[in-house]
Design brief:
alpha/beta, Helicase, Ruva Protein, domain 3, 16 strands, 3 domains, Rossmann fold
């Protein structure tokens, strides 16, 4: 089966430019849709799935900047490339600060447009696993609502505690965790809850950028610095000045780039590629990786001095299997989302289906849970998701006795307080069962039980007190 073509929308009021771009990208295997103004682009966006938008900044009816804002409101993960003339480069830079992934100055050559498009699509693919959750979907009572995070398990509460302390500081943060655990979400939370929130949040996925273009990506370049550098261009450090720069998958950097990054962190200054002017910036750096950087250091593929510069405040994110008590809350959110998108009215899961979700190991973490639930909502015949609606991988997980009678989760409009209470009660029941199991296996030894549950002793004691389990404590 052939992979589906990537869907690209080109919006420009110049007919000739639309034809040229469509021809170049069609030859490269993309499905291209062309419109002549921002209003047509927005209408197309609202009715079709897209992987990339390329828009001119100056268009009738709705200009490129307004279109960018609309795209940001609809889908933070949809990349936008802006096109600009030489005289409006400042506007293009402003668009990057607002969230555009890149810009091209007219006239541009074919190699340049191809490189920028490939980078944008690669970034989207890599970012899907950690897509932020819409804050509007979170209840005000959720402890992670201000951070856009769903969960109340002990490990997630520890993440909130770190965010409370470091969000409004200039300190460098290193976020670690498996793919799909929400590293970008936490990076955005750090920015949005800091005094820099009105300044740029600039993201670079280091795994999406070709190694030979990384220096230009981070530090910019001057005209003529290399082939196809037909105009000067600021790098991501310049764009993030006074704001936050998020380096995702920082473990992918070459040793040479690690050395150059270390210098910027030490001195807060750099030069563009091919330039002689030293540029100083005030940037809060947040880095993330799914690699074990200490192991990379031992293997000689990551600089130890850079690691300590990045790891000033570490934020380790738990895998979903380590916070299974949050699954009912996540289910509630995703059911509401997919009911709206798929025009369904699924109100919950059968006890067996919920037990399967809780017992599954979730190698793909929250992104995998989202995919499983989207499929389940789509194939559900009634209002309750059954075990047969779940994926084969989830159904093959070990047998688990349901912890409670029928549990309903989610609601078409997500507004039922009674339903929220059911979700909270379901989470408490699952937490209680897991803690009782751990205490039974360790003869009531809280220290050993905490180790089994992979939480701190203090965190377990607080949870035991909350659930009325202190009488089971033996040591």
């Amino acid at each position: 089966m052939l992979p589906e073509k990537k869907q690209v929308l080109v919006a420009d009021d110049e007919a000739n430019l639309r034809r040229v771009l469509s021809a170049i990208l069609t030859r490269d295997g993309y499905e291209v849709h062309a419109v002549e103004d921002g209003k047509e682009a927005l209408e197309f966006l609202q009715n079709h799935h897209l992987d990339l938008v390329i828009t001119d900044l100056r268009m009738p009816n709705l200009d490129g900047m307004a279109l960018l804002r609309e795209v940001q409101a609809m889908d933070l993960q949809l990349p936008v490339i802006v096109l600009t003339a030489h005289g409006t480069v400042d506007n293009a830079v402003e668009a990057l600060k607002l969230g555009a992934i890149d810009y091209l100055t007219k006239p541009f050559d074919q190699t340049e447009i191809r490189n920028v498009v490939r980078k944008a699509l690669r970034t989207r693919d890599l970012s899907q696993a950690d897509a932020p959750i819409e804050p509007s979907a979170l209840t005000r009572s959720s402890p992670g609502a201000r951070y856009g995070i769903i969960g109340r398990s002990p490990k997630i509460l520890e993440v909130y505690s770190i965010l409370d302390r470091v969000a409004d500081s200039p300190t460098t943060v290193l976020i670690t965790g498996e793919s799909g655990t929400g590293k970008e979400l936490v990076a955005r939370a750090l920015h949005e809850n800091s005094s820099r929130k009105d300044k740029p949040f600039i993201k670079v996925n280091c795994a999406a950028i070709p190694k030979d273009l990384m220096e230009s990506e981070l530090f910019g370049h001057e005209r003529g610095a290399f082939t196809h550098a037909i105009s000067s261009k600021p790098g991501r450090f310049e764009l993030a000045d006074k704001g936050t720069l998020f380096l995702d998958e920082v473990g992918e950097l070459t040793l040479e780039m690690q050395s150059k990054l270390l210098r910027v962190l030490q001195e807060s200054e750099f030069e563009r590629v091919g330039g002689i002017k030293t540029i100083r910036v005030n940037v809060r750096l947040v880095a993330a990786t799914n690699r074990d950087l200490k192991k990379e250091i031992a293997q000689g593929t990551f600089r130890e001095d850079l690691f300590y510069r990045l790891n000033v405040v570490p934020i380790p994110l738990p895998a979903l299997r380590e916070r299974s008590t949050d699954i009912p809350l996540l289910v509630d959110f995703f059911l509401t989302k997919f009911n709206q998108r798929l025009k369904k009215q699924v109100t919950g899961l059968s006890p067996g289906a919920l037990a399967r979700l809780v017992s599954y190991s979730w190698p793909g973490n929250i992104r995998e849970l989202e995919n499983v639930l989207e499929r389940a909502v789509l194939f559900a015949d009634g209002s309750i998701i059954q075990e047969d609606n779940l994926s084969q991988e989830v159904r093959a997980s070990r047998e688990v006795k349901p912890a409670s009678p029928a549990i309903e989760v989610g609601h078409v409009d997500g507004s039922s307080d009674g339903l929220k209470e059911k979700v909270k009660a379901a989470a408490s029941r699952i937490e209680r069962e897991l803690i009782i199991r751990a205490l039974d296996q360790t003869s009531g030894n809280v220290t050993h039980a905490a180790r089994l549950l992979k939480i701190s002793r203090k965190g377990l004691q607080l949870k035991m007190k909350e659930l009325g389990l202190r009488e089971r404590e033996e040591g």
